[in-house]
């Protein structure tokens, strides 16, 4: 029993030290503020891998290409957030199908803030948050994960 306790304690200490070491590396590479798709995919392997693994369905491709030209989408996300690592690459691959679509990527720190204060002024509490605008008026949001899919949820807002 004592041996088990020593092994368990050793594993907990090792996990804690490892987590601290990893958070230092992660924080050093954390993006903050308005960023480009290239920055996200180049600096964060998890985003790149998710982007490459995602296949756009014909239905989603048709939906994205049918979106109006006056649509704009702001994406608030964290490079440290597992939901962002899953959803943002999917979004980027979808919007690659419609080059007329206006988008903005805003990377947030752990406190969900960034240098320009845009996240605070838009009351962003969870990541990722996709804020969808039509004619410069907010028409809806996708928070953390879509109900159906990003393409279907945005199409339902129109």
What does this entry look like structurally?
The radius of gyration is 19 Å and the shape is globular. The chain starts with a helix and ends with a helix. By secondary structure, the chain is an alpha+beta fold. Helix 2 packs across helix 3 (45-53). The longest helix has 27 residues, at 2-28. The protein has helices at 2-28, 37-43, 45-53, 58-66, 82-95, 118-121, 150-157; strands at 33-35, 71-77, 102-107, 129-134, 137-143. It has a five-stranded mixed sheet with strand order 1-3-2-4-5. The protein has two domains: 1-30; 31-157, 3-Layer(aba) Sandwich (Glutaredoxin). Strand 2, helix 5 (82-95) and strand 3 form a beta-alpha-beta unit.
Set down the secondary structure blueprint.
Elements: H1 2-28, E1 33-35, H2 37-43, H3 45-53, H4 58-66, E2 71-77, H5 82-95, E3 102-107, H6 118-121, E4 129-134, E5 137-143, H7 150-157
Parallel strand pairs: 2-3
Antiparallel strand pairs: 1-3, 2-4, 4-5
Helix pairs in contact: 2-3, 3-5
Give the gist of this structure.
The protein has 158 residues and is an alpha+beta fold. It has helices at residues 2-28, 37-43, 45-53, 58-66, 82-95, 118-121, 150-157, and strands at 33-35, 71-77, 102-107, 129-134, 137-143.
């Amino acid at each position: 029993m004592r041996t088990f306790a020593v092994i368990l304690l050793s594993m907990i200490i090792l996990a804690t030290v490892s987590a601290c070491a990893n958070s230092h590396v992660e924080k050093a590479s954390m993006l903050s503020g308005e960023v480009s798709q290239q920055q996200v995919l180049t600096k964060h392997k998890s985003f790149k891998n998710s982007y490459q693994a995602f296949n756009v369905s014909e239905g989603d491709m048709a939906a994205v290409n049918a979106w109006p030209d006056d649509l704009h989408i702001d994406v608030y996300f964290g490079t440290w957030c597992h939901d962002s690592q899953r959803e943002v690459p999917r979004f980027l691959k979808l919007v690659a199908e419609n080059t007329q679509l206006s988008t903005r990527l805003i990377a947030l720190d752990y406190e969900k803030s960034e240098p320009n204060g845009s996240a605070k002024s838009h009351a962003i509490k969870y990541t990722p948050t996709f804020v969808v605008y039509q004619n410069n008026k907010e028409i809806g949001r996708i928070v953390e994960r879509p109900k159906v899919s990003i393409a279907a949820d945005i199409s339902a807002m129109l």
